[in-house]
Write a structure and sequence with these properties.
By secondary structure, the protein is of the alpha+beta class. It has two domains: 41 residues, Orthogonal Bundle (Arc Repressor Mutant, subunit A), CATH 1.10.10.10; 79 residues, Lrp/AsnC effector binding domain/regulation of amino acid metabolism (RAM) domain (Alpha-Beta Plaits). 38% of the residues lie in helices and 21% in strands. It is built from five helices and four strands; from the N terminus they run αααβαββαβ. The chain has a four-stranded antiparallel sheet. β2 and β3 form a beta hairpin. The longest helix is centred in the N-terminal third of the chain and has 13 residues.
C-alpha cells in the first residue's frame, strides 16, 4: 500500500460515493488506475464495505448511549452476542478498558433506554455491572 492508496482511502472515508473520475483528478491518475487500486484494496480486505452515517435524532432516536458492560468471564462471549442481537444496539465491541464489553445503543427516549437495560440487558446471563453514558453531542 502506497501514498496513493492511502489518499484513496482518505477520500472514500470522507465520502464513499466520490466518483472514480473525481478521485482520479484529485490524484492526477487515470480512472482505470483508481478502479484497479480500489478493486485491489477490496480484494485485500483493506476496504471491507461501504456505508452511510445516519443522524439518529432525525430517525426519532433522541437518546444515544455508550454502554459499558461487565460480565462473569465464563459468559463473556455469549453476553456480547446476546447484546449484538438487540435491534437497539448499533455496535458491540469487546474491550480491555474499564468494561469488558462496550456498545452503542439508540432509543427513542430515556424511558425506553431504562426498560431495555432493566428488562433485557440486565437479564443477560452473567451480567454483573451496567454503566450507561448518554451522549450529549457528537463532535466527530
Amino acid at each position: 500500500m502506497d501514498e496513493k492508496d492511502r489518499k484513496i482511502i482518505e477520500i472514500l472515508e470522507e465520502d464513499a460515493r466520490t466518483p472514480f473520475t473525481e478521485i482520479a483528478k484529485m490524484l492526477n491518475v487515470s480512472e482505470a488506475t483508481v478502479r484497479k487500486r480500489i478493486a485491489r484494496l477490496e480484494r485485500g480486505g483493506v476496504i471491507r464495505r461501504y456505508t452511510i452515517e445516519v443522524d439518529p435524532v432525525k430517525l426519532g432516536y433522541t437518546t444515544v448511549t455508550i454502554l459499558g458492560l461487565d460480565v462473569e468471564p465464563e459468559h463473556f462471549l455469549d453476553a456480547a452476542r446476546k447484546l449484538a442481537e438487540m435491534s437497539e444496539v448499533r455496535w458491540v465491541a469487546t474491550s480491555t478498558g474499564d468494561h469488558m464489553i462496550m456498545a452503542e445503543i439508540w432509543t427513542r427516549d430515556g424511558n425506553e433506554l431504562a426498560r431495555l437495560i432493566s428488562q433485557r440487558i440486565g437479564r443477560i446471563k452473567g451480567v454483573k455491572k451496567i454503566c450507561p453514558a448518554i451522549i450529549l453531542e457528537k463532535i466527530k
